[in-house]
Design a protein that fits this description.
CATH class of the largest domain: Alpha Beta
Number of domains: 3
Structural class: alpha/beta
Number of strands: 59
Strand content: 25-35%
Shape: globular
Distance between the termini: 94 Å
Largest sheet: 12 strands, antiparallel, barrel
Strand order of the largest sheet: 45-46-47-48-49-50-52-54-55-57-58-59
Length: 1123
């Protein structure tokens, strides 16, 4: 078996360019190719009985409406003062150091809630999981291939996959498959600048291939080489390609068994069968027309420095991208075309250009790969790609491009356009593997710019020195020998140069470290190291660059899972939360200017500089220096050094304190700014009578005080902030220390009803607030008597507290008194509101009344059968809320006449009713199916009639509550009874007038309890008694055509809808009603009936119904036949 290599064909500029691959010829040859590859107890035994709910309600109301608390108020008075322990004997003052420590305050009051241990604080689980919907959406992989198409071990008779990635060839392919089913890459776009895409290639079938690709078809004045005139670059179909290479690269990136599911945008511009064109203009075209930003360039030119030399003579301005070539030049060089375009792509269009170094076995990279030497800012969006020579021994080294170069595995097997598996090597598939990794990174972190993606790929690359250290004896592979050893009888291989190889332990390539780039070694051969797609998909691997900006604007949550290293730091900007889960050792400052940074591991020696946004987390940091923004104690963050708050007085910045959580400072804490109580954690609840907890503890002491305090949660009021020596879990000062270590907050809960008083709310908002007060007051009483609450009770209380925290809009000029947002107040209350269940029941009752009235009219007509289909839309527009109701009803019925002129009949109604209620974008929905039977009788007395009926129906409902994923199903029953009287008046003009009056009563009741995760509903009851009058008019326009019209007014003389429920985890029964909609409705209708036989007719009708707050329309078709 011979080891075949072929030198790549060379081309330059306008000539067809070479692809950076080497294809094996013999079927038995070893092939090379490139691949992408307690509960705290009270401090006092005395318990003070809580004042009555009514007293507290009015006290809170008076306090909120007529008193404006100062930034640091005195403790709020209570109706019945609690006994206070005598103050201890005075302590002799200590010498006052500079700065002045906070005075010792050892007299503490209020029921103490001990901070929750860090091990018990609930943490979010940020672990990524394989997503079943992504798994289901995967295209069928091409036969005989593995994910990523890598055959490094098979091709080299080696164990390199195990040495590089710790798995077998198949095992690593499975890991790549899991990776692409963890991160949704379907919206990503990638440009493949190559020999074109043929969507019928076996690896492209089922892949996400764009319908068109760009190609040069220049003719006349159109051009494919002029930056100012690229009109020759046009869109063509992806049904053919000038070569195999483009499909094979696209397959590695995003084929049906590729690394990702990105959409592929091709360019047919490299192979000799194409019409050529400038590759960078092709990229610009795809960016302009389709927004593509990641570009795979598995091609090369002549592997010389000609491009670089030409570029240096263009008088290029790196600030503007303009060039000023010698006007006396005799020809236009390729650099003159491409350099401004490269500048535009990287600096203005956020493009990431990924390009192969080549396959000539050179010790350096050349051509356009040297572009960042013209402008160091190009490193933001330019990655060159080599391949480890253990896999492909003809890969060109990174060389002068090492600072923006990475190495990736080469050996690949996928399909050529002729349908045959092709086994090949080269830096081409290595480049494609880097492009696939870039797609994964971009999809995992949509906020990342080209620079962030590039730094992520480079910073997570594996260090070859670590790989070799783990396997000092080398790897299993093909070892080059000058001649076969004496007595050797094993297999041997030769390449096309006559070199001899035998299997065996093979030493690692020698790699030359040329620089330590701020904590990471860079080698001449492989740049930053070996590509690691899995690590790159987990975010940055370290901070090795100056001025790293992590601007997460537009992405609510991002998580970096790696242990972050490097000598530099970063600046966090933009809205959105960024989470670090690793144990980090990077040394530079962590500057927070926007959004939130959550530290959940040990963050080593980096100083947190908080200028804006928020620092939070469950882990530890070295030191915190705060000049703005917030530090949040919600995760029991630990500061191993000192905490210094140095905000401007009056600035809205400082410490966010959650009751029951505590920041621990191993050193000193220098206080200032605002202490802002936001909520509380799981252990105990803030009661109306007041509770106390430690929110910060500095082991080496406190200096200064907070400038002010407040609660951004409108449900809480901070009544006191105390600075004391360390206290135990019962709130008692430990020992005789004279150093203040603890910041203790005393707060009380206000009445929810008072808090939202005066805010414009939807119909049931105030009822929700009153019921929440009722439940929370019962929890207060239980906590006072029993000393503890269940975990479910605490979970409910904290859910309520979180809802009120979300209601705050801003603080205006008074930071002590948060203003409520009308929108968020309505939203948060509606999330806790089960009223829509009752509204859905009333919807069933009202719909049933409409069809029962129609039945009463049909009974008077004697012997006949009928059927109808109708659809209605019913919209209710209320203050701060809307209700959309849609329904379809299918009716069949029949009546007959007895000997004594009495008509009896029955009607079967089948209805489906959809209800959607919304409060500022928060929606609850129900889908109700009912089947009902109505039976009745009618007696004609001359031209008049009187009808009566009874009805029963089975009702099945499926409900979906806002922010809950599972539907809730429940059943119910409906009963009704009614009477109707009317008269038929025929006029000489052929018009028939039929006045009528009616009265009916409908009742709905559910079967069994309903548990939707928020409420346990024990009873839903909807009753309505309705009376009405109306007149129908019919005109016989022709013997076969009858025109109809009518008007009706109906009024609900009584309506009683109730819903009995408990909130999950609580024992307090509360009741809700329904939204108070208008009880009077008027309607008008028009229609036409056509006799298809003397006794049968079909009809079409339309009606409109209105009220003070609703509009409804109905359209229906009907069939009637008399017998």
């Amino acid at each position: 078996m011979s080891l075949q290599t072929q030198p790549a064909k060379k081309g330059f500029y306008a000539k067809p360019l070479t692809v950076a691959c080497m294809v094996a010829i013999g079927t038995n040859s070893v092939a090379g190719y490139a691949e992408t590859g307690a509960q705290a107890q009270s401090a006092s035994s005395e318990r003070v009985k809580v004042s009555s709910y009514l007293y507290n309600y009015y006290w809170d109301l008076i306090n909120r409406r007529y008193y404006n608390p100062a930034p640091t108020p005195a403790p709020a008075p209570t109706p019945i003062p609690a006994p206070v322990r005598p103050a201890p004997a005075p302590v002799a003052p200590m010498p006052t150091p500079a700065p002045t420590p906070a005075p010792v305050e050892s007299t503490v009051s209020g029921r103490y809630v001990a901070p929750v241990a860090s091990s018990e604080v609930k943490r979010n689980n940020y672990t990524r999981q394989v997503q079943s919907h992504l798994k289901r959406s995967q295209p069928a992989p091409s036969a005989g291939t593995r994910t990523g198409y890598s055959v490094m071990d098979t091709s080299n008779n080696s164990d390199l996959t195990s040495k590089f990635y710790g798995a077998t060839e198949d095992g690593y392919a499975q890991r790549l498959d899991n990776l692409k089913n963890t991160i949704d890459t379907r919206r990503a776009k990638v440009g493949v600048i190559d020999t074109g895409i043929n969507r019928f290639n076996r690896d492209m079938v089922g892949a996400n291939v764009h319908d068109t690709q760009v190609k040069c078809v220049s003719a006349g004045r159109s051009s494919c080489y002029d930056p100012h005139n690229d009109s020759g670059i046009v869109e063509t179909s992806t049904t053919s390609a000038s070569g195999d290479h483009g499909n094979q690269m696209a397959a590695v990136i995003a084929g049906n068994n590729g690394m990702t599911n990105a959409k592929i945008y091709g360019s047919d511009s490299i192979d000799r069968g194409s019409n050529g064109g400038n590759q960078f203009l092709m990229m610009r075209k795809l960016n302009q027309d389709h927004g593509v930003k990641i570009f795979n360039n598995s091609w090369g030119s002549d592997n010389s420095d000609r491009w670089f030399y030409d570029a240096q003579r263009l008088n290029y301005d790196p600030n503007t991208g303009n060039i000023y070539p010698n006007r006396y030049r005799t020809s236009i060089t390729n650099a003159e075309v491409t350099l401004p375009v490269i500048h535009d792509l990287i600096m203005n269009r956020d493009a990431l250009i990924i390009k192969a170094t080549g396959n000539e076995g050179l010790n350096d990279a050349h051509d356009e790969n040297l572009a960042p030497l013209m402008n160091s800012e190009f490193k933001k969006g330019f990655i060159t790609v080599s391949s480890p020579r253990e896999d492909f021994n003809q890969a060109n080294d990174c060389g002068r491009t090492a600072e923006w170069c990475v190495s990736a595995t080469s050996s690949t097997e996928n399909y050529a356009n002729n349908g045959r598996l092709s086994n090949y090597k080269g830096t081409s598939p290595a480049t494609a593997r880097v492009a696939g990794t870039a797609v994964l990174v971009q999809s995992a972190y949509p906020w990342m710019k080209n620079e962030n993606i590039s730094q992520t790929i480079l910073g997570t690359a594996k260090d070859f020195s670590e790989i070799t250290a783990n396997s000092p004896n080398g790897y299993k592979g093909l070892r080059r020998v000058s001649r076969l050893p004496s007595g050797y009888y094993g297999r041997y291989y030769t390449d096309n140069r006559g070199n001899l190889y035998i299997p065996g332990d093979t030493p690692w390539e020698n790699r030359q470290i040329i620089a330590n780039h701020n904590g990471k070694n860079i080698t001449w051969q492989d740049g930053w190291g070996l590509l690691d797609p899995e690590a790159a998909a987990k975010g940055y691997g370290g901070f090795y660059w100056d001025n790293v900006e992590l601007d997460t604007q537009g992405t609510p949550l991002s998580v970096f899972y790696n242990d972050l290293k490097g000598d530099k730091g970063f600046t966090k900007k933009g809205a959105g939360k960024l989470v670090f889960t690793g144990n980090n050792s990077y040394k530079g400052n962590s500057i927070i200017e926007g959004g939130s940074l959550e530290i959940n591991g040990n963050n080593g020696g980096s100083t947190m500089v908080v200028k804006g946004g928020e620092l939070t987390g469950h882990g530890s940091v070295a030191n915190v220096h705060q000049t703005g923004g917030w530090v949040n104690n919600e995760g029991n963050l630990r500061i191993r050094g000192n905490y210094n708050i140095n905000t401007n007085r009056g600035a809205d910045a400082g410490l966010k304190a959650q009751f029951g959580n505590m920041i621990t400072v191993d050193g000193k804490a220098r206080l200032g700014g605002t202490l802002n109580l936001t909520g509380e954690t799981k252990d105990g609840i803030i009661s109306q009578s007041g509770s106390r907890s430690t929110v910060l503890r500095a082991k080496q002491g406190l200096e200064n005080r907070f400038d002010s305090h407040r609660s951004s949660n409108p449900l809480f009021e901070v009544t006191k902030v105390e600075y004391t020596p360390e206290v135990d879990r019962n709130g008692r000062v430990v020992g005789n220390s004279r150093v203040n270590n603890d910041v203790q907050v005393t707060a009380r809960r206000l009445s929810a009803g008072n808090v939202v008083y005066g805010i414009g709310m939807n119909n049931s908002g105030s009822r929700v607030a009153q019921n929440l007060d009722k439940v929370l007051n019962d929890l207060d009483e239980k906590q006072a008597v029993q000393g503890s609450l269940t975990s479910d009770e605490k979970r409910f209380a904290n859910q309520v507290f979180s809802s009120f925290e979300n209601m705050s809009a801003d603080y205006g000029n008074n930071t002590a008194s948060p203003m409520l947002s009308v929108v968020s107040t309505n939203q948060e209350l509606y999330k806790l509101d089960p009223t829509f269940y009752a509204d859905s029941a009333l919807n069933v009752v009202e719909d049933s009344a409409v069809h029962a009235t129609d039945f009463g009219k049909r009974l008077k007509d004697g012997r006949n059968v009928w059927g109808s289909v109708s659809h209605h839309d019913y919209d209710v527009d209320m203050a701060h809320a809307t209700s959309e109701r849609k329904g379809n009803t299918y009716t069949v019925g029949a009546s007959t006449q007895t000997a004594n002129d009495v008509s009896v009949g029955a009607q079967l109604d089948v209805s489906d009713l959809d209800l959607k209620e919304s409060v500022y974008g928060i929606s609850n929905k129900t889908q109700t199916d009912s089947i009902g039977l109505t039976v009745g009788a009618s007696k004609n007395v001359g031209d008049a009639y009187v009808s009566g009926w009874v009805k029963g129906a089975k009702v099945e409902t499926k409900a979906n509550r806002a922010e809950m994923t599972d539907d809730i199903k429940y059943d119910g029953k409906l009963y009704g009874v009614g009477i109707q009287v009317g008269k038929n008046i025929d006029t000489a003009s052929g018009v028939s007038v039929q006045p009528y009056a009616f009265a009916n009563h409908q009742k709905y009741k559910n079967d069994g309890d309903i548990n939707d995760g928020m409420n346990i509903i024990t009873d839903i009851s909807a009753k309505q008694t309705q009376v009405g009058v109306g007149t129908d008019v019919a005109f016989q326009a022709t013997p076969a055509l009858q025109l109809t019209a009518g008007v009706q007014v109906a009024h609900a003389v009584s309506r009683d809808t109730s819903l009995d429920t408990r909130y999950v985890g609580t024992a307090t029964d509360v009741q809700y009603g329904t939204w108070d909609t208008d009880k009077t409705k008027w309607s008008a209708k028009v229609g036409a009936n056509y006799n298809v036989t003397p006794n049968s007719q079909v009809g079409l009708n339309y009606s409109y119904t209105g009220s003070g707050d609703s509009d409804a329309s109905q359209v229906g078709v009907s069939f009637t036949s008399k017998f």
